[in-house]
Structures are given as structure tokens and as C-alpha cells.
Description:
heterodimer, A: mainly beta, Methylamine Dehydrogenase, Chain H, PH-domain like, 6 domains, seven-stranded antiparallel beta sheet, 11 helices, B: alpha+beta, Ubiquitin-like (UB roll), 10 helices, cytoplasm (chain B), Autophagy protein 5 (chain B), ubl conjugation (chain B), autophagy (chain B), Atg8-family ligase activity (chain B)
Amino acid sequence: MNSWCAIAPLHKDPTQEPFIDVNIGGNQIPYASRGTLAVWAITAHGRVMYRTGVSTSSPEGQKWINVSIPPNCDIKQISVGPTGLVWALLWTGRAIIRKGVTKDCPTGEAWLEVKSPPETKLSVLSVGVNVVWAVSTDTRVWFRKGIDGNSAGNSEIAAMGTGWLEINGNMVHVSVGINDQVFAIGESNKNVYWRSGITPAELTGKRWRMVQANMQLSRTSSTASIISSASNPKHHSLTMLTESNTSELKSNINLHSSWEESHSAPIENTLPIKSARESRAKKSNNVETIDLTGKSYETTLKNPRAWSPVRSVGSVVGMEAQPDSDSSVFDTDSGMFFDDEVSQTAWGTCDTSWAFVEAGGCSVDTVQVPHWFSDSQNAFNSDITAKWRFSILESLKSRNNVDVDLSRYGLAIEEKGWTRSSEARLVNSNNSSEDCIISLYWHATENTGTLSVFQPDGTIKFILNLGEISSVTTCSEPGNPRISLVVPNQSKDVIKIQYMTEMEQEEWMNVLVDITSQIHGLSGRPSNNSVWAVTSSGDILNWDPLPARLNCEENGRYTKEFQVFGKNMTSGFSTALHNNFTPGCILKMSGCLFDDVTRFHINLQGPEVKKQRHKIETEVTEIPFHFNVRFDENTVVCNTKVSGNWGAEERHKLPLAKGQEFSMKIVSEIKGFTVVINDEKYCSYKHRISPETITSVLVQGQLRLYTMEYSSTSVIIGPDEMFWRMMGGYLRKVECSQNGFVWGISNDHRAWVYTGGWGGGILKGIGGNEAIHAMTDTQTYCVYENQRWNPLSGYTSTGLPTDRYMWSDITGKLKRTREHTKLLNRHWHWVSEWMVDYNTPGGVDNEGWQYATDFPAPYHGKKIFTDCVRRRRWYRKAQINTEGPWVRAGNTGLLDISISTNGKETSVWAVTIGGDAIYRTGVTPTTPAGAHWEHVNSPQALLAISTCNNIIWTVGRKGELYYRQGISEENPGGSDWKLIEAPKCGFTYGQKGSIGAKAISLTKTSAWVLLTNGAIAVRTGISKEQQDGKQWKFISDCEQSFKHVSSIDREIWAVRSDGVLQRRLGVTAENPAGTTWQMVLPANFIHVSARGGCFA
Amino acid sequence: MANDREVLREIWDGKLPICFQLDQEEIMEIQQPDPFYVMVPRLSYFPLVTDKMKRHFLRYISQENADSEMWLDYNGQPLKWHYPIGFLYDLYCGSDSQLPWTLTVHFTKFPETILLRCPNKDVVEAHFMSTIKEADVLKHRGQVMSTMQKKDHNQLWLGLQNDKFDQFWAINRRLMESHGENEGFKHVPIRVYSDDGTCNQRLVSPKNNDGSRKVLQQLISELFPDKIEVKLRTHGIMIPPDTPLQWLSEHMSYPDNFLHLCVC
């Protein structure tokens, strides 16, 4: 059914009398045989034509017959109701109806004129079962009272109705569906509306509700025209035509279910192009507003092969997949199957002004209206900005301004802690789960609380201090609402709690985020130096270093005490020095030596590095300062280990006696270390390698420590002390800059700017409703249908026993079916049906299939003799409605964005979904969203971009790297792109040649490049003079692969491919690639931006 | 849905400074008791917030009256405990606001004809819950309250008693949702009081016949067809006449789910 069949024109020359309108109805003509349909059409000469023999089994019918019309009637539009009732609209704005349409006389008997509403002309009319709706030229909406479709054939009154009733609302177009549901296009905003509350008893319905109808467009076919649409004179026809495709699509989907397959033979068509125009004319009956150039039709059509009648004359070979045995098998692996890569690159959306709507065979279930029919968001938004609301809020707030000294007034209700408990399930790392009871205790005035987890019998499993929770995020799976807590001090694993209902999960999420933020004193806008990260569930997290910085500052120094008392030093105690041990750092210790002490040593050392010998083991290869007190040798040895080799020893005499209490201080200075023992300077030791490579301290020997204190000139924050606050909203990427500009990109590639608020969505109004706006996002879910060729039956969904699942993901390893693809939570809803993707990379044939010799092999679009298997991609789109502290910035769809500040100037560069580089003008602190995009020509379609210090690097679609030349204040767009030497892959990955890049992040002196294989390469030596840098370095200390990297100055943050957030340690001027990764947060991240310069 | 948290929070946090003074006739000690000052949530009820005050005055009164029920008056007008405190203030002092609100405490001569007896807080709870139920009957034909569990009812009461916004609204949110395809309540639970304390309660729909939202001004002209310039006060503020009734009910109802509006 999913194809076009051209109908022969009236004359040999189809331009002689083209059709201007066609309408289908009559599927419920009283007593008519099942499947009967009535098709009426209007020609350009004003003749009314009726198609004989149309039925569901023969949708193309037999021939046109002319139905005579009264003299002086020029008909413009015709509408056929489901019961066969025909109304026609004249160019003069009057309506005539066809009397006596019955099953035996489908063309009716005579025309009757209907009085128009007073003092107005009708412009559109649409007939339903028991209703006729019309729109007049002054955009008023009219409802015809007293229509009774079932007796319309026999009774003039039933066909004509009794009078017009005006319905509130101003519309330009109206269309009635088969169950009398009404759709319309608004006059002012050109949105699609649906009339809610229409029931057989109340045919006029209650109110107009806006339908969420965002256009989705494929980049591969038509984004070029969307991007340029603002200046494109054909813009109007573009939206017009794509829109009519969509409405057609809608009715087609409906027809699948109700129609039998056609049994008639295809009709030969010699003039396909003309029929294309014919069908177009049908769609556009308000012809005067549209520019109908055949050209734009051809170029902007979403998928010509699928929709144009040109290639598929009369053939209706099963586009619909055969019902598969899969659906009957219960599929435990079902779930959220959206394909990140597809969401990432192939689709964009654009806001559309609608001009035409055709309800066609669309039957809306009024009891359960689709989510996207709801516009409750809009109602809410209008209230929030209403004048009366501000007046109320203002007066409420001013109530507190009383001239009473309130200091002597006690509180009537004592602040008490409160508890909240709930039954839940604790999810283990292997995805099994066990029942538990979780209980939250919170005391607001003391700012403390605990989260206890009990077993069902009431015994305690564990208790968490709420202050130790470093992040609260959602990690739901469809049907399993979950939250995850990271508590680094308590357990290495993420604690996952599954709730019984989504509501419960959201309430707990809200409460936990609220309380943990209160504990950390966080609210409202985070500081400019924050790190932003995005999880795979679209949660946006923020870590703000400012509160921690303010908390522990003393005389410009930051001190951190380590808990060492009672720790066993004999086997060694090691702790991280988060700021390394740069000049200015001091380590103080006090303790007591054992009586039988023989040796003890203090190592200021680098990170542990994985070594692969006969087995994988870790080893510290760099020890810049080794201080070894040897009572057995009666000496103190100072030394340095470089690359695993000790240097020359420096020996000093013994300062301490066995069993003695002591205090000790190691000070890092520019030239070297100074050691002070018992407040007297003991020795100095010149730096042999940079103290910046020191990442931890190790104390080992027969002694006991009382205290250990680490102080530094910059703030000391370990990953276990970072609290990640959920900010609200739903995005794919968030990029920030050093002076507080934060931009986000959603999965549908729209750009958003952070408003400074906090909350929205499940956080509700956590930080007040100011700056919280409605957000939507769309994701594409994909499944692959696989088939194998069989000499007897051709391609079937019966594979070999060893074959992949016949419905699978892209790899074929996981079973995926359309039926079992579920939405994540109640905020998501489907906005499309399952459709065959005709834009699958590699090319497809007419039915979306790609062929290959076997699974898995390169796929190609044209079947050749050796092909034994084929697959095709099905996709379906889902939309989320939520709120968050974000506003839309511009209408251009973006792939990547990068913001950098250079003094007062801020530059925002981005890559559009079309692969073009653009930059935003007019971005200032007061207008963070900027003014508009400037386009920069690029030779290749681009994928990613990064800017820093007015240097711009981009990644081309083939993985090549460019930088932009000639950027200056006068010419912020630069002059041309220059290719950068590709990173040569080292031995580590065992691949020869170069590997393409997929993302980049620039600092002032280096570029961090994420390669397509997940490895990270660093380009060093970047400067204003040498913008392409000097040399590639590879991070060789690990074989981890990554999803994303973000860098600024010496802060490098990355997201590992398993979603763990990491930070690079040991980055120095001499060693710009750093020494090792430190794990920050084990959650399921997909993006991070540290470009606020967290420690700057 | 009541989703304007900022307004909800502002209303919840509304407090009144009250100065309690013991009736001169009841003082049995030579020493005059100090007045008792306290900040009281506008949304609460007097029996929930007067325990400390009662203990404060007990030692100044005759011991034989210590067990009898305490009651309050303002300017000789006994205060009905079953109304929210903020409403009582709006009713008696709304037009001429004087803070702190000075109330007189009595332990004798209980005005049986005017006040209901309130032996303990359970009576307040019973009254509170029955008012919520009445409101739910008006809003949703009682469907929401009847589907709630006992612990939910309890949480509403404890939230109010302990001044816990989140605890209260976690449940109250459900009472403020519209059900079915109707957007809006069946009727708005609303009571309009004249300055003499007489109450006017009618069936009020939040919508006009054409489906548009009914605003406060329309209600005023229905209730007082012959008066012009009627203003209504609640929570210590004048309500703009163009406020939609549905929104008003969702956001500005007292915890008992009724809008208590005073004519001024």
C-alpha cells in the first residue's frame, strides 16, 4: 500500500483539463457493500467528476464520469462524507450539496444550494458523518447543525442541516476525520489544532488544542534547503509539500489496517510526471497561496523513491513487513533501542508554518488521545507570565514587609527532622535485584540526613550519610524506574534503586536532589567555572568548584587534612595529592616511630602505570622525591626514580631516634624540596624532575601518624568531594566557557542556551519557576529487519540456524523488534509510526533493502546475483516533553558547538547538521543567545569543531582535521581552511596508517583529539603562530577507549566509552599529554565540558 | 495542575506574628504574665500552634481552670478554631492590618453558643479531613480522596501539622489535578465570607458555558449582582479580578482545599 499508483488523465494531453481537487469518502454509505468508496474530483474547467468502481480492493477504480452541475456554478472544492454526503464549495463562497446519494445512486440526484453564514463567504468546507465544518474567508469557523449522515440520502433536511453555528477560534483550514474529529490550521500562528471533546452527543466539541507537530527532516536529502530556507523564495512551497506528504502518510498508515490488499492489475501509465502534478493539486486546494514549481517538488521531497508515483506505477508489492514470528516470542531483551549514531547525525527538525491539513482516514481515539495532541504546556506557560499572577506573587511577597521586630517571636512549630520510606528494589551490578525498604531521614535546620536501606525483614543493609552522596541521577530502563547514587566513600559501585512506580521514582529523585543540594549549599546558577556533564538519560549535571573553594580558604591557602590516625603504615598508606606538588605546596605530618623501627620512607610519587609483562600489573615509575630513613644503616637517603630507574642517592645523617615523636614538613619550592623536621630545617633536595608530576604520597614503615595535612595555593578537591548537581532539562551536549556561557544541543540538534535557572521536569520548581521553560527533544529508535535468500521462496525471514536475529540491532547480536521497543518513561511519546529508512548509509532499493553476500558484510543498495542476505532499517521517533532552565537559540540545527572567551570577547562556533561551520554574532553576557549565525564556507561537510584563543579546528566527515586561517577582529570568520597532518597511529592499536578524528577540544597550546577508534591523541605546540601545532602524542598509558574529551588549560576531562567520567592528571607544560587518568564519577555519561576552567 | 511552585511556596510560608495576652480576669497571681509572642503559619489552625502558649500561661491561672478548654478572642470576638488562622486574620483585621495581632486568651466562660468544643487535636484532624473530602466531592465527585490510602491522608495532616511543604504537597498535588478529559474541576470549592462572618457557599464551575475559563470578576458579579467594586481578599492579599478561578483554586486554596475569600 505504501506506494503510488497513477490514475490516467481525462484527456490524452493531461494539461488540457487537470484536476484541482479530489476527495474520498463513502466508506460508510448506508447498506452499501463493505469496502465501497466514493471519489469525487473537480477539474480546472469546473466539471465535477465521479470515479466509478472505487473500493478498498480496487482503490484506483474504473473510470471518471461527469456529474452535471447547475449553471453559473464554478466549483472550487468538493468534500465527501463517510456516508456519501457531498458538499461542494463554489468560487463565490457559496455551498451546494448533492441530494440523494445512496448506495444505488452513488452520484446522487440533484444539487441544492445552502445558505452561507450571514455576511461571509466560505473558503473551506469538510463533511463528516453527522457534521459539516467550514471556514469562511474572514477566518471564522462554522459548524452546520442538524446534519444526519445516515439519512442524508433520503432526506433533504438531513443532508442540508438546519443552520450555521459559529465556533470560537480563527482558522484558515479545517478538515473532518472519519469519526467526526476535526483538525484545523490556526490563523495567527499556522499551527495544527485538534478540536477536543467531540463526542456523538456534543459534536461541536469543547476547545481547540494545539497538536505538537514539529517537522522532522532528513539531513541526507533536504537539509540544505532548510538551512537556507529563510532566504529561499521557495520556502513556502517546501513546507507546503512536505506537509502534504506527512498528512498523506498519516492516512496511509490508517489504511493499512483496514484495507484489504489490492487485487487489481496495475495500470500502465505513460505520463508519470503529469500525474505527480495531479496528486499535488489535490493536496493544495487553496492554490492561490502556493508557489507550485515542479522543481521544488522534485528537490525537496523527503524521499522521492518512496513517495513519488514516478517509479512505482501501479505496483503495490508488500511494503508492509510480514508479521514475524518474533512478535509472539516474549522478548526479555526488549527496551529502549534508540540508535545513538542515527540520532546523532541523520535527523533534524524545523519549525513549520502549516497551511493545509487533511484528516483523511485518520480515526482519533477520543478516550485516549495521543500525548502529542496535548498542549497543556502552553496553557501553563501563559499563566506563568500573566499579569494577575505577577500581581499575586508581588503582593504575597510584600506581606513579609511588616514593621514588627520579629526577633522575640518564637516559631510555633518546632523544626523536626522527617523521614520518608518506601519499598523499592536494590539493583545489583549483574542487573538482578532484591527487595528492600529505603528510608530517608532529613533534618533541615541541622542540614544532615541519612538514607538507610533495610532488608524486607527490617535488618539494616547499609546506611548512607546524605552528605557523602556525590551524584543522584536517573538510570531507568523502560518499565523500571530507577535512580542511581554515587557514594565514593561508601562503595565503589553505583547504588541503583528501582522504584515501583515512575511517580515514586520522580518524587524521590526530586527530594534527593533537593536535599543533597541543600547540604552542599547549592542553589540557582552555578559559578562560571563549573564543569557540565550529560548522562545517557539526558540528565544534565553540574559540578561547581566555587563553594568548595570558599569553604577551605585561609590566607590564600587551601588545606586538606587526611584521616591517618590509626591507619597501618607498615604495609604502606597512600593518598592522592589532587593538586600535584607544585611549588608552594606543603605536606605536614606528625607521628611517632615504633621502638623497633628499622626503616621508613615517604614517597612523593607519580601515578601508578599499568605494565604488561607476563601479566598485567601496576607500578609507579616516577618518584620525584623519595625520603628514606634507615636506622639500620644510620642514614637518610633521598633519591628520585625516573622511568623506573633510581638516580644518584643523596645521604644525610639521621635526625630522629627510635620511638621518638616527631613532626615533619616537606615544602615544594621553585628549585627544590625543603624538609623541616621538628621545626628545624633538615635538608634541601633539588628537583630532578618536575614536582608537577607528583600525584600522591606514600608513607610506609614502622611508625604511626597522628596527622597529615596537605596545603596548596589552589583549591584542593578530590573526586570524592565533588558533588554533581542535576540542573534540569534534557539535552545531548552541553558546552560551557570560562565566563559563564553555557549552550546545549538536544538530540534533535536544536541549540539551547542556559538561562541561569535550576529545575524543571522531574525536579519541578526546585529553584523557583523563573527561567524554566518548556523543552522538547526527539530521538530516533532503529531496528533492522534481516532476511536471507532461499532458492525456493526467495527472501524470507527464515534465516539459517546460525544467522543473526531476523529483527536485530545494527550489529545483529541483539534481538530488537518493533513491537518490543518501549519508551523510557511517561514523559516520552511516539511521534511517528515505524517507517522504513530510505536513507540508510550505503544506499537502499525501492523498498529500503540493502543487500550483501552474507551477514555481516558491506551492504549495498542494488541487488546483485551473489547477494544472499538483505536488511533494512526501520525507524520510529519519540519525543519527550519536559522543562528546564534552557531557551532555544536560533533555528539552525547543530551537530557540535564550541565556545571560547578571550578577555571580553566571546566566540561561539558551531557545525550545522548540514556540515557547515557557522559562528554566532552578538554573544555578550547580557545576550547569551547572541543575534544570528554567520555562515563560513567549508570544502567538506564537517562533524565537530573547537575554538580557543581565536584558533579554530574542525573535523571533516572523513575524519580529517582543519584549522581556520586569517581570523581577526575585523574578520571573525577567517579566510580559509587548512588541512592538518593526520594523527599517525602508534603501535598501541596495531593499525597502520592514520585514523580519522571524530571530536576535538582545543586548549591554548594543545589539541585533544578523539579518534574514531576511541583513542585520544594530543597535538602539542599550538600557538598563534603555529595554529596547526607541531607534533602528535598518543596517550599510551592505557588502552581505554573514549566517547568524548574536553580540555581547557591543564584541565582535561574525558568520558570513557563505558560512561565513566575521568580527569587527566599530571598535565604540565613539559608533559602536555599528562600522566594518568583519575576516575571522577562512575555514571553513564555521554558528554562533558570542563571549558569553564574549573580550577582556573 | 498546581504547578506554580513559587506561588505555592509563598503561600505556604505566610506567617503572622501574634501576641497572646491572658485575660485580666483570669490572672490569679500577683505577678503579671508576659505576653507570649509567636510566629504562626497562616495556613495552620490555632489548636495546632498553641501548646507552648498554653503552658506559658497555665501557672498564672487558677488551678481549677487548668483543665478546662482554652479559647481565644480578638476585640471581644471569639475566634473559631476550625478556620485557618490566616483566614481569621483576614476576616477581622484584613482591612486595617495591625501587627502583631493581639489576641486574648481565656480559660473560663467558654462561649458554647459560638464556638465548637475542641478537646484535642484529633478533632481538628477530623474536621480538616472532612473539609478536604467535601472539597474533593465538589472537584472530582470525591474520586481522588476515596482512592487514596490511609497513609496518604495521614501525610496530608502531618504535613500541615509539622509545616512540611513537600510532605503535604506530595499528596495534595493529586487533589489538585484535573481528571478525565475535563480540564478543570467539576466545581470550585469556594466560600465567600462577608465581614460579619456569614458564609456564602455555592456551586461554582471554573468554566463558562462556552468552555473558556471563568475569572474571579465573573464570580463576583454572580454573587453580588447589585454591588459594584467588590474586592476579595485571601492570604492577606487582594486577588486581581482577572485571575482564573481554576488557577485560584489550585494554587490559593487553604490546605483544607477550600478557597476562603473575604469580602472587603
